Every structure is written in C-alpha cells, then in structure tokens.
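User:
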Amino acid sequence: MVQYAVTLKDGDWTVFCDGAPMAGDLTRSAAIELAKALAFEAEERGETVELLIQGYYGDLSRKLTGAEQD
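Assistant: Predicted structure:
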C-alpha cells in the first residue's frame, strides 16, 4: 500500500508519500491535483492507495482504492 497525503505545513500545502514530503510550497488545488495524479499512477501499477486530504479547517478526508480494499 502507498499513502499520499495533502496537508498544510508551515503555511504551505505539501504532498507527502508514505510520510515523507515530496513537494511543497504549493496551492491547495495544485497539491490535490499532484496527489491524485500520483495515486492514479500507483493504481495503474496495481497498488492499493490511501489518499488523505486535509481541509482548510483541519478536517481530513480519506479515500482507499486499489487491489486490496477492505
């Protein structure tokens, strides 16, 4: 399983992969677009993907896709 997350870190939106920052200094929409593209590529490789996206007020949405859904 691979996990992508979009969170607000130090005032900038950052994309993380499995807990490690991949890209920062983004707008929220650019970060979400990047995370979704990376998630799609992982799904195409047959991986299970967890996509976490932080909202403007700290709420978190979660989407689990791929081969090994529960």
